[in-house]
């Protein structure tokens, strides 16, 4: 027999976790002594339940496993709602555990009662998760925990929520836990008939098409290391140019000769030119949901002249884009493996490789980026692209950067160079402001061997900057770079053209974020001169603890999203 609390902690450790993110509270009091009875899980206490859930999300993305967060029901769980929704839209596996009153107290007016008799926590979480369920008896804990994890790890992945009554936490569990994670290890299902038909079309495009010009658009479905390695191998073997979505920016080395960079929001000129080329034979889309930002505001379907193959595990996304020539349900990794083993590698393939290299040379003869002069602009206030470029010089090649939501996302997406899979992390679908600040704590827990940095804005710091304290308290050497333009940057760029009131409503005070950091136990640096960026970033990386670099930036800088903006302006909906 084990107490419910001890059973939960042992189960999480058996699944391979080594950190648990939380905010203590009355409804989970029994968990606290249980944490002291074990050593496998390191507890990380966040400042806010939303921050704890963001940390679990970051841990999941960086570890390749899943993240776990625990807090009280009612206000605690409600504080997690946005974080859980962000995990849902990005298919990030996060286990959310919330404490609840004892069954005998439900509906009697107990403090913070959010059981099914009152607020109903499970109903609150149901639209945001793959599964939301109430566990009222310790006898059912083993079943519901394993069922929840199975639902979370099945494709498409996403968060699950279990509301645990006090009876469950304090009751005895008479069960031996068997981990479910191994069931999903290396699982790569593929619709073989559809894949075979797509492979035949791909073979024609690579070896015998009009121009033998084919390219890959890689999305989040190839973000895991094994898929990214296969992508690189296949691309090199058949000389196939590769563009990525913004979320998958790091899945293919951006300094590779076959790299076209990002397509869509904040994308490169090379990627746009290749995708919309009149003589492109075939576009192979791997693991992208083809949402607004991945498709240049949905103009991909109207402007691209190429036949298209779309491989995705999410059938909803496949059927939403049924105009593709071949829709292949299944794993992008499995399809890449099929390509590696089955594509023709004879004389016709040699001709195709030569044709694609020649085509790629033509594309790369033109400039890759917009506004390259802004990457080293002198004078104050500092241009955001200048700060991004300086951080890239100072930051290790294998370091992990997290990018928040705001104008800085566009500057990072366009001007940052990602070299390795897993080194560029961002919540790109729902994209809540401030996500990256606590998520970096989870990433650093999962990857203590890597340097971790965050590029965020002052608006994001207003929302979740307090979690710098969590990083500092745990002595995590995370470097937070605040591109501080005293504004809600992206919104201000639109609003200030509408008059003084919209401009004022989207402006912010110029706070001293370096002083804020020092007050929380971190190191703080302020940069007003671009000539001081390199040395300041070096100092922040070398200081050995959490550091905040307050970079005073210019808010009146157009973001490098020109191709995307043109797509928005030209777009019309076609059923």
Automatic annotation (TrEMBL):
Residues 404-551 form the Thiamine pyrophosphate enzyme TPP-binding domain. The keyword Plastid does not apply. This is Thiamine pyrophosphate-binding protein. Residues 212-337 form the Thiamine pyrophosphate enzyme central domain. InterPro entries: DHS-like_NAD/FAD-binding_dom, THDP-binding, Thiamin_PyroP_enz_cen_dom, Thiamin_PyroP_enz_TPP-bd_dom, TPP_enz, TPP_enzyme_TPP-bd. Keywords: Thiamine pyrophosphate. The keyword Isomerase does not apply. CDD domains: TPP_enzymes, TPP_PYR_POX_like. Pfam families: TPP_enzyme_C (PF02775), TPP_enzyme_M (PF00205), TPP_enzyme_N (PF02776). Belongs to the TPP enzyme family. Residues 3-116 form the Thiamine pyrophosphate enzyme N-terminal TPP-binding domain.
């Amino acid at each position: 027999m084990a107490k419910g609390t001890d059973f939960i902690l042992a189960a999480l450790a058996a699944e391979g976790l080594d950190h648990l993110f939380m905010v203590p509270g009355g409804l989970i009091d029994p968990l606290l002594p249980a944490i002291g009875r074990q050593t496998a899980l390191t507890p990380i206490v966040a400042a806010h339940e939303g921050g704890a859930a963001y940390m679990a999300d970051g841990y999941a993305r960086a570890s390749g496993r899943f993240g776990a967060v625990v807090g009280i029901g009612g206000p605690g769980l409600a504080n997690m709602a946005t974080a859980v929704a962000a995990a849902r839209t990005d298919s990030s596996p996060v286990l959310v555990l919330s404490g609840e009153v004892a069954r005998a107290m439900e509906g009697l007016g107990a403090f913070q009662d959010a059981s099914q008799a009152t607020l109903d926590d499970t109903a609150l979480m149901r639209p945001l998760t793959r599964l939301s369920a109430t566990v009222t008896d310790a006898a059912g804990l083993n079943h519901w925990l394993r069922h929840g994890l199975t639902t979370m790890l099945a494709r498409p992945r996403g968060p699950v929520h279990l509301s645990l009554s006090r009876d469950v936490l304090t009751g005895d569990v008479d069960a031996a836990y068997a981990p479910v994670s191994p069931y999903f290890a290396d699982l790569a299902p593929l619709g073989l008939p559809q894949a075979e038909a797509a492979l035949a079309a791909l073979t024609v495009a690579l070896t015998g098409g009009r121009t033998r010009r084919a390219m890959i658009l890689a999305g989040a479905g190839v973000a895991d290391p094994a898929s990214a390695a296969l992508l690189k191998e296949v691309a090199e073997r058949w000389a196939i140019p590769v563009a990525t979505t913004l979320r998958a920016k790091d899945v293919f080395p951006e300094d590779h000769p076959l790299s076209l960079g990002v397509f869509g929001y904040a994308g490169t000129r090379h990627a746009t030119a290749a995708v919309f080329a009149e003589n492109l034979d075939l576009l192979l889309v791997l693991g992208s949901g083809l949402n607004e930002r991945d498709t240049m505001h949905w103009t991909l379907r109207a402007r691209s002249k190429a036949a298209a193959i779309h491989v995705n595990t999410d059938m909803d996304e496949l059927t939403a884009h049924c105009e593709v020539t071949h829709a292949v349900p299944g794993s992008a990794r499995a399809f890449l493996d099929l390509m590696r083993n089955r594509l023709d590698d004879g004389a016709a393939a040699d001709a195709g490789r030569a044709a694609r290299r020649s085509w790629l040379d033509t594309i790369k003869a033109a400039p890759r980026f917009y506004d390259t002069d802004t990457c080293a602009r002198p004078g104050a206030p500092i241009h955001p692209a200048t700060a991004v470029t300086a951080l890239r010089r100072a930051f290790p090649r294998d370091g992990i950067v997290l990018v928040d939501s705001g104008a800085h996302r566009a500057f990072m997406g366009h001007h940052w160079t990602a070299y390795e899979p897993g080194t560029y992390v961002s919540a790109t679908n729902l994209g809540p402001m401030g996500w990256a600040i606590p998520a970096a704590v989870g990433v650093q827990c999962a990857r203590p061997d890597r340097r971790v940095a965050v590029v965020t804005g002052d608006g994001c710091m207003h929302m979740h900057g307090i979690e710098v304290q969590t990083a500092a308290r745990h002595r995590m050497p995370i470097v937070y770079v605040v591109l501080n333009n005293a504004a809600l940057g992206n919104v201000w760029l639109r609003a200030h053209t509408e008059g003084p009131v919209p401009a004022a409503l989207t402006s912010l005070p110029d706070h001293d974020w370096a002083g804020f950091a020092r007050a929380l136990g971190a190191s703080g640096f302020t940069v007003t001169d671009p000539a001081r960026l390199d040395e300041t970033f070096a100092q922040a990386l070398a200081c050995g603890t959490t550091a905040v670099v307050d970079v005073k930036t210019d808010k009146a800088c157009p973001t490098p999203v020109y191709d995307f903006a043109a797509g928005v302006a030209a777009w019309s909906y076609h059923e």
